[in-house]
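ok, trying the design again with the full structure, not the truncated one.
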């Protein structure tokens, strides 16, 4: 077996809105709380990580990780257009300091889908001047936090509109979505409300690409010596039968982002499943397919496939920035991790420049429209007391991380 390199990045991922709680100035908070919402439940206090980040970081370090992926919340940093909160920036400075104090390299997401509600109400990334505003935010972040960050990613799953459009799009959801957005617009005294997760690529992608490049420029101009990347939602795409449409499906899934990623220091690969594509497009899962609680196929081998795809098609260093499973049965998480890591070892053995594995997620958290029912965490969070309890999978992955850094591969397998 190949050993993971000594400096391999081992971590867990979180996102600001999904764990912090009380993100009241964000577009999602409003959408979750209008009567027309399509959300199963509101995020509310989430995991209260805005206050309990110290506990989270200490736990991640104690488990054996060397990296912590988290998001900084634009809605807190710029609660009104052009008004920057020193206190919010200082908060994230403390989070960075806490990571360093525990020996974790901070991996910061500039945008993990949420935006300030004023930004959504003026048209979000549909507006041509949105890259100016995103770059201004990035500039402030860079100036204040640049010195503390080890990795930065601009957009989380930059191709998310394509993923939703080409795979999960349910036309029946559209009326509900429109009503929710209208209610949000009304609440803001606006005629529009544009959210990253619920827009189409036609509406916002050109501005997202421009925003990415402008944010990179702004961050590079400031202090710090961090690696800058973008993360992409990737799935194993398997063509089935002659004349299958796999290539067309892939082109549609990634759009311009493979090219964009070629200019980044690293690409963040985020993988959860496989799609099988026949001559007519995506095939339904057979009735006996093994599924995760999210309903999609359980396919731990998909990670190896996407890392190989990213190496082939992008050719930049790769960090797996998300990979995980929704399951209330933690033994499935352990199995997923073991099978996926074997695939990563084969990638390394073949010389692929793979730098790290960051598991989604540290905590059971707010899974967007699906609320708190989906359990992706290595760590359970009591919804009333916020008490954190590490699951066996957390110890398992943490031990692999620790032992592989010590190059104690036999113990790691035992
Ligand atoms: C990814 C998202 C992350 C979480 C996981 C389950 O697509 O980036 O926030 O929702 O899926």
């Amino acid at each position: 077996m190949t050993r993971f390199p000594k400096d391999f990045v081992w971590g867990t991922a979180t996102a600001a809105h999904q764990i912090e709680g009380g993100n009241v100035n964000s577009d999602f908070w409003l959408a979750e709380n209008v009567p027309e919402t399509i959300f199963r439940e509101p995020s509310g206090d989430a995991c209260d990580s805005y206050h309990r980040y110290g506990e989270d970081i200490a736990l991640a370090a104690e488990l054996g990780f060397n990296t912590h992926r988290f998001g900084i919340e634009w809605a807190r940093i710029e609660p009104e257009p052009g008004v920057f909160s020193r206190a919010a920036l200082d908060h994230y400075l403390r989070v960075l300091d806490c990571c360093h104090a525990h020996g974790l390299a901070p991996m910061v997401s500039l945008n993990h889908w949420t935006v300030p509600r004023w930004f959504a109400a003026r048209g979000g990334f549909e507006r041509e001047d949105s890259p100016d505003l995103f770059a201004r935010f990035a500039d402030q972040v860079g100036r204040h936090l640049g010195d503390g960050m080890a990795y930065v990613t601009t957009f989380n799953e930059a191709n998310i509109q394509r993923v939703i459009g080409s795979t999960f799009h349910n036309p029946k959801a559209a009326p509900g979505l429109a009503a929710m957005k209208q209610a949000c617009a009304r609440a803001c005294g606006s005629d529009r409300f544009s959210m990253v997760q619920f827009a189409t690529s036609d509406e916002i992608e050109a501005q997202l690409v421009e925003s990415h490049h402008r944010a990179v420029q702004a961050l590079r101009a400031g202090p710090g010596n961090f690696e800058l990347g973008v993360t992409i939602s990737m799935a194993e795409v398997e063509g089935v039968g002659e004349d299958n449409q796999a290539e067309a499906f892939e082109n549609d899934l990634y759009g311009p982002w493979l090219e964009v990623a070629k200019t980044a220091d690293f690409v963040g690969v985020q993988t959860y499943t496989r799609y099988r594509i026949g001559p007519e497009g995506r095939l339904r899962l057979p009735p006996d397919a093994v599924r995760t609680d999210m309903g999609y196929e359980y396919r731990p081998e998909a990670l190896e496939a996407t890392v190989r795809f990213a190496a082939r098609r992008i050719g930049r260093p790769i960090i797996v920035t998300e990979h995980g499973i929704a399951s209330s049965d933690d033994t499935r998480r352990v199995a997923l991790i073991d099978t996926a890591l074997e695939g990563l070892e084969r990638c390394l053995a073949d010389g692929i420049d793979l730098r790290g594995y960051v598991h989604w997620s540290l905590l059971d958290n707010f899974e967007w429209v699906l609320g708190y029912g989906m359990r992706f965490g290595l760590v359970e969070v009591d919804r009333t007391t916020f008490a954190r309890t590490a699951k066996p999978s957390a110890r398992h992955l943490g031990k692999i991380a620790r032992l592989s850094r010590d190059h104690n591969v036999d113990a790691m397998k035992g």
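Keeping the full-length input from now on. DSSP finds 16 helices and eleven strands in the chain.
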